[in-house]
Structures are given as C-alpha cells and as structure tokens.
C-alpha cells in the first residue's frame, strides 16, 4: 500500500482515492458565489470509516453517501476539523454505520452540497466595468497549487487523478470555458438561464480543474486549436498566437502523440496572476503576452509542453514540483530552438535560466529560508505556495541538461524523453522513481549515472552543483553590451555605445532582457542622463513590451529616478501577473520616497486584484507575514 506522500493535503487519499467527479455548478455574479453539488466516486484502498477531504473557506450544507452503487444515497454526518491556517481545513465525512466496514476495492460515492465564500483564494470575480469590453462581468479560477479546495471539497493533491463531467449554469449572454471539452451548444433552463456541459475524459489532478465565465469569443487557429478571449482582444490574440498548431506539432515530435484531442486557450484579463496556466484543453494565458510581435510566445510553448510533462506525467506532491516545471522548461527550450532553427540558442536560454535561479536564491536568502532553494524542498508543515520560485524551473532544467550531456547529448536523449512520458503517464512520479527509470533506460551509462551525488543534487540548497558548459555567442554579445553600459560614465561614452550598436533594437527580446537584467543585477545606480540614453538605445520609454519595461523600471527605481515612478504605478495598477507585479512593488517599496505611494496604491487596488497576487504583494509590502 502506498503511503501518504503529499504533506500539502489533509485528505486521507491513501485510504480512499477519487476516480471520477461530476459537478453541478451554479455561477452567481450577483452573490459572487459558486454553488456546487459534487458527486465523487472513490475506490477504497484500505479499510476506513471516515473520508477526509481538503477545503478552504467553503460552506458545506449537506453530505450524502452511497456505497456499492445502490443509488440509495444516505445522509452522512460530517464536521470541519480545525483550521490549519496554511493549507485549509479537512472536511471529515462519516461513512454511515450500516455500510461499515468498508473493504479494499469497494466503491463509495459521496455527494456534497457546498458554496464558495467571499475572498475564495482560487476565484476572481470582476464587475463588467473591470473588463475590456465592459459588457459582462467575468469570473475565473486559478487552482494550482492548493486552491481547488477553496472551490469545493476534494482530494487536492497532484498524486490523485480523476476524470470529470460538469454542468454549469450561468446567465444568458455569458460563455463558459473549462479545463475540459464542451459537449454541444448548451441549453436553456426553465428559468431562462443557460446550462453548458463539459467532459474531461482523461484523469486529471485537482490543481488542473479550471473554469472561466465572461463575454468570450472564439476564433479557430487550426484543426484542433482555438483562441478564446473578450471580443475586443480576439484579433490581437489570434495574431500573437497564430503559431499554436505549429508549436503543438514540434512538441509532438519531441514527446509523442498529443493525447488530449483539442488544444484551446483563453487569454484572460490583466489581473491573471501568471504568464500561463496549463489547464488541460484550455490553457489560461496572460494578456501581457500580447506584445504585438509574437516575441513572448514562448510561454504558450511552455504551457503546450505541460500537456506531457505535468498533465500526463504528474508529480506525487509539490515537493517534486521540479518534475513538472523543470521538465517543461527543458523541453520548452528545445521547442524554442526548433522555432528559431538554432540549437546554440538553447545554451543562451540556459544563461537566462541561471539568472532567474540567482534571483530566486537571493529572494530566499533575504527571507531567511535558504532550505526552500533545494531542488526537492521539504514541505512538511509548510504552505506549498511559500516554496514557489524559479528554483524548480531552472535547477530542474539545468539538471536535465546536465544529464542529457552525461548520456551522450540530444540525440541519445531524444528517444528517452518519449519513453519517460509513456512510462509514467499513468503513475504519479517522484524524484527517486525518475532516477531509477533514467538509470534503467541507459544501461550503458548506469555506472556514471549511479556515481552522481543524487542526495546533493536533490537536497542541497543554493546554487546548482552541476557543471554545464553555457558558453555561446549570444551571451557574449549581451555581456559586451552590458559591460559597456556599466562602465560608461560620460555623455560621450553613452553616445559611443549607441553608435557602436545601432541595431540593438532589432535584437531578440530575450537578449535585450538579458542585458537589462545584468545591468539591474550589477546594482549600479544610473544618473538621469545615463538612464535617458539607455532608454533611448533600447527604445524603452515607448515600449509596451512588459518584459522590457519591468527591468527598465527596476533599474530606474534602484537609481532613485522619479521619472519611473509613474510608469511603475501604471504597471502595478493594471498588471496582476506576479512576475512583473511583485518585483515592481518591491522596488517601489525599497526606495523610501516611493514606499508610501506603493502602499497607498496597493490598498486602493486590492479589492480589484486577484486574491493570489494580492496576498503576495501584501507580504512584499510587509503588510502581512507569511503563513508558515
Ligand atoms: N504551472 C505554471 C504556473 C503555476 C505554477 C501556477 C505554480 C501556480 C503555481 C505555469 O506553467 C508556468 O510555469 N507559467 C510561467 C511560464 C513561464 C515559465 C514560461 C509563468 O506564468 O510565468
Ligand atoms: Zn509551467
């Protein structure tokens, strides 16, 4: 019998395990509530008398249980166990005495009537005035990592996968999308509302449950791909992500057949807290990716890649999160290299990875939590959200690159990737199982693989211990430019750099970001005239590309230049994507002169923010302490 190996769930999934879920969801914008009846089928693994499920701030009004498919539901006694304050509160359901003892292999169906409450962490409600078109209100979920439990009681662990069907009732004029495939056109209810049905026939973990409701339009981009978004944004989104089918094909060539049938995606409002979220059949994307020149499409490639690494092959717990994100980053770079037809570019992307990793290491150092920089952190008695950072992404990606080199290079590695996906697609995976399979896949390399210090690789905090050759011409070019900007100290020298690199504005966004990040990391302060010349050289004052705008603002704030305060405030007022929002707020906070306006702006905007972003910014602005 499997032990419980996920410390971030309160469910007793080692005793009973969910296999299918049916939901009836009523979406009410007037009360800002989801009212749900969930009907979950569980298989008993070990004799048990109670079923424990994860919840956070949900109101449960009734629980019914049916054992062995008699279709005779009996009302069951239930209670909320004490609140853990950091991973929610278990709902404990008593299996009716007449059905006890439950034996391994038996089927138990549990029906729960529940409602969400105000401020549910996985939900964002928006008034129509807050949307682009201002025609209809909007609602969307974000369940990763542990927020599905704020929607309805469930086994909220990546280690349990279930199929689902859903009927969703909404007011007329609203469209619904889910992490599932829609059945038909929807039907009118007796009271003049609309009901839409969805099916997810592949088993998925709770964190991939997703729903969004709003004034949404759809445009087909290929035989199995379509973009959804507000009508006002549809053309821009269709242009930006026109390559979707092509990217999907590249990913298939690396990982094998795409098993989810359709790949549709939704471009959300600006408040969406991430760049992308790999909800199956309906990736969620941030509108910050709409740069107008397809330069930020890598995030789409990343979310597509999760269809294999993350959604098919899924980690057992958030401790082994790198198996989702490190793998996905690793293949994302391969996809990108194919797209730009340049394998050397991958090495450059690794340099960027290194920078991202360093950023995270510094952050955890400041928080005095270096233990969270281990590739496999210990999350016992911790909120898994606290461990989220660039570490699993970048250390994970570096580890795979290192292993790829160790076994002979990309060609030797290619068939292994497909084998890895096939081997683990039905079993939750941890780091140990990954290493064992790796060693068995490469018998000729078993000695060298076994000789690695795996304990060190997985458990030691701080910098990656692996030796990887990252030298590449793109990085050399970037380094040369940043060095010049760091050293220059007179108007003549600024003009000289600009004259030396007249085509800099045509360099890839990745390269420009890399240079700006290096300037920021150097910690030097730019006097106003130097900053103005830098802005001119990179076209930064006018750019709407947020990847460039953010490091520019950070350099400016660090240099205590008033000219970037308004651009910084403009950014934090509209952008919920934490990758930009949090560093800009932190930089505003660090400079004494902009600290108060940062706090005032946050307090004013908080009611309109996504609860996940708002929680983190409150911590960044020291208005709140972390939970664990
Ligand atoms: N699954 C993640 C987003 C996520 C991680 C949400 C952890 C909640 C908890 C998604 O695939 C992701 O990594 N997004 C990145 C994209 C980037 C690495 C290309 C993002 O949002 O920036
Ligand atoms: Zn990801």
What this model shows, in words?
This protein has 3 domains: 1-119 and 141-203, tricorn interacting facor f3 domain (Immunoglobulin-like), CATH 2.60.40; 318-459, Neutral Protease Domain 2 (Neutral Protease, domain 2, Orthogonal Bundle), CATH 1.10.390; 473-620, Serine Threonine Protein Phosphatase 5, Tetratricopeptide repeat (Alpha Horseshoe). It has helices at residues 234-240, 244-255, 298-305, 322-339, 344-366, 390-406, 410-424, 431-441, 446-450, 454-459, 473-487, 491-500, 509-522, 528-538, 546-558, 565-574, 578-590, 592-605, 611-620, and strands spanning 16-28, 33-44, 50-55, 59-67, 74-75, 78-80, 89-94, 107-115, 123-126, 138-141, 162-170, 175-178, 181-188, 194-204, 211-214, 217-220, 225-229, 263-267, 276-277, 282-285. It has 19 helices and 20 strands. The chain has an 8-stranded mixed sheet with strand order 5-4-8-2-1-11-14-13, with no helix packed on it. Strands 16-17-18-20-19 form a 5-stranded mixed sheet, covered by helices on one side. The mean pLDDT is 97. A hairpin with an 8-residue loop joins strand 6 (78-80) and strand 7 (89-94). The structure holds ligand BES and zinc ion. Residues 144-145, 274-278, 298-299, 302-303, 306, 325, 388, 393, 579 line the site of ligand BES.
